[in-house]
Amino acid sequence: MSLLLTFAMLMQVGADPHVYPQAPLPSITPRRDVVTKPVPPADPMAECLARGRDDIDAGLAYAHDWLAKAPTPEARAQPNECLGLLMTDDGDFGGAEVAFAAAVDAIPATDAVGAVPLMAMAGNAALANGDNARAIDWFDRALAVGGYDDHAGRGSILADRARALVALGRTAEAGAALTQARAEAPGDAGVFLLSATLARREHQLGVAQGLIETAATLNPRDPAIGLEAGVIAVLSGHDAAARRSWDSVVAAAPDSAEAKTARGYLAQLGPATPAPLDPPAPRPTSPGHP
């Protein structure tokens, strides 16, 4: 599972208002002596993110203004979340962690479950910023919240925790975290891909092969899975299988980073060698005629 992908899943917004018919607004004639105020957007998070997609500076300015106008401490959670997401998109991972941490602090203690995704975001920001120990602290804090029963979410957090542990060289702990992640999220192809990669790095090629096959079954068109499958195959001495995997990556996603890597691997492998022709079968003979 890639780092930016974990944040995009948490950035979905509400339904497009153009999809559903809207009731007509009542006709109101304002008094001349009344100064009308601008109507705030129905979904300020959607507005914040949309502005940031068009112009990062405009999005950040909107988020800061939204934050400054928050009427209660709890109301500071969403503008800080938007700040964190926009800073992540802008590559400011340190700033993003600070914003997500502020969003966590704004969530009441009675709603700790609601803060878990924000803790995971803070952990991923720390991970992207190279602060693996801090990332593990965030992930451990998220996993310790009682009542959080989103199994797929827990699996994703465990997988991210494993990434941080690998970066610190704690591979045995990472393997244990991934075992838990597969139990929590048995349908998450990214968890099985990460598990296969770790097993391959630990030279457990048989284990890696089984894990990558499961990943490919869950998501057969993911180029990252095809790329890893080829690496496992070539290290296992199955060059033809590796070539098929890498060829499939190039065919399925020719403009992807995985396809670029696959082309490099194919060049190292060299041209395919045709299989030797089978010798002709001997003609049958009748008795007495050799």
Task: Provide structural commentary.
- With 290 residues, the chain is mainly α.
- Among the domains are: 44-145, Serine Threonine Protein Phosphatase 5, Tetratricopeptide repeat (Alpha Horseshoe); 188-271, Tetratricopeptide repeat domain (Serine Threonine Protein Phosphatase 5, Tetratricopeptide repeat).
- It has helices spanning 3-8, 44-54, 56-68, 77-89, 93-106, 112-128, 132-143, 151-167, 171-184, 189-201, 205-218, 223-235, 239-252, 257-269.
- Helix 6 runs antiparallel to helix 7 and helix 7 packs antiparallel against helix 8 (151-167).
- The radius of gyration is 27 Å and the shape is globular.
- 36% of the residues are buried.
- Mean pLDDT is 86; it is low at 1-36 and 283-290.
Question: What keywords describe this structure?
Answer:
0% strand, 290 residues, Serine Threonine Protein Phosphatase 5, Tetratricopeptide repeat, 63% helix, disordered N terminus, disordered C terminus
Q: Low-confidence runs (pLDDT<50, min 5 residues)?
A: 1-36, 283-290
Q: Output the number of helix runs.
A: 14
DSSP strand tally: 0
DSSP strand content? under 5%
The ordered string of helix (H) and strand (E) elements is HHHHHHHHHHHHHH
Main CATH class of the domain at 44-145: Mainly Alpha
The major β-sheet equals:
none
| CATH topology heading of the domain at 44-145 | Serine Threonine Protein Phosphatase 5, Tetratricopeptide repeat
| CATH homologous superfamily grouping of the domain at 44-145 | Tetratricopeptide repeat domain
Task: Give the integer mean of the pLDDT values.
Answer: 86
Radius of gyration: 27 Å
The CATH architecture classification of the domain at 44-145 is Alpha Horseshoe
- Helix coverage percent: 55-70%
Straight-line distance between termini? 66 Å
Shape category: globular
> Helix- and strand-based class?
mainly alpha
